[in-house]
Structure formats: structure tokens, C-alpha cells
Amino acid sequence: MAIAHLPAPAGPPDDVPPYAPWAGEDEVLAEAAAAGRRAAEWIRSLPGPTAPGPVGAWLARELPGAVEIAMASLDPAACDRMGPDGRIIDGTGGVEVGTISVLAVVPCMLSEATWLTPDQHVRLLAVASAVTGTVRLLADDPGTAITHGVARMCAILVLCHRSLSTCHRILSGLDH
């Protein structure tokens, strides 16, 4: 079986319309950056291990830095698009691969963070998932992300420092 790529669209390769910001985009992105800062502050406030080690250092510096950088770097213009050769280019949502890599290892690192409570583990998983989900949503569908998706993810980030029962009540109220 042979695979043939579709021909490139007609017109010069730079025949791509300029990015037009969505209504309310600046406000949504500012709130995302603020939510990222608050989540990073919460992570930095977590207790450290009794003895210094690589996981404790990662948790104190790399993870909160990645959360803060990712939420401050969101860019709807860096969405999925068609390249000049007609192939689809996966968007990054404005966040570098290295930053996403730090967030992707949260489930692996938590097994080594034995000094944290299960509740803190769940909250760290929620933060990592909300941040990576926000990035992917923005890259896949910037219009939906700007109009309501990013705000919902930011609410999850803000709630991570509250009790889980409070989070459940508040998120249940958002669905109605």
C-alpha cells in the first residue's frame, strides 16, 4: 500500500491569514497566568522531605516553575495548523516541550514523594493534569479554550489548595 500526501494548497507558502485574537483573549490569558502563579506558590509551600534528595528538589523548584511558565506562556496562535506542504502541524499552545515534560512525569515522581499525604498527591496530579489539559485544549481548539475552557481549568488550579470536599462542591456548582 502506498501513501501519497495531498498536494500543497494553492498560493504561496506564506499565504496564511494573520492570527486574529479572540474577544477577551488578553483577560483569559492574564487569569491563566495568575492561576499558574497561585498553583506554583501552593506547590512551593508543600513540606519538604526529611532528608534532601532529587525528588524534593524537583518538587520545590522544577515542578512549580513548569506550572508557572506553562500557564504564563499560553498562546492561542500556536494552535494546530496546516503547514506549507499541506501536512498538519501539531500546535504547542505556546508551551515548550521541556516544560510539558516536567509536568508529564508528575505521576512517576509522586511515588517517590513518600512524605506527602495522599491528598497532596491527588492535588499535584490535578494541577499537572489541568495545566497540560489547558495547553492541549488551547492548541487543539483555541476558540473553545478562550471562550470557556481555560477559565474552567484555572478554577481547578485555584481550588487545589482548598479541601477536596470544597473543590467537589464548587466544581459541582459549575456544572449547573
What does this structure look like?
With 176 residues, this protein is mostly helical. The protein is 60% helix and 2% strand. A hairpin with a 5-residue loop joins strand 1 and strand 2. The longest helix has 23 residues.
Helix content: 55-70%
**SS-derived structural category:** mainly alpha
Largest sheet: 2 strands, antiparallel
Principal-axes geometry comes out as globular
Low-pLDDT ranges: none
What is the number of helical segments per DSSP (H or I, 4+ residues)? 7
What does this entry show, briefly?
The protein is an all-alpha fold. It is built from 7 helices and 2 strands. Helix content is 60%, strand content 2%.
Provide the descriptors you would attach to this structure in a database record.
single chain, 176 residues, mainly alpha, 7 helices, 60% helix
SSE blueprint and pairings:
Elements: H1 25-45, H2 54-73, E1 81-82, E2 88-89, H3 97-104, H4 106-110, H5 118-140, H6 142-159, H7 164-174
Antiparallel strand pairs: 1-2
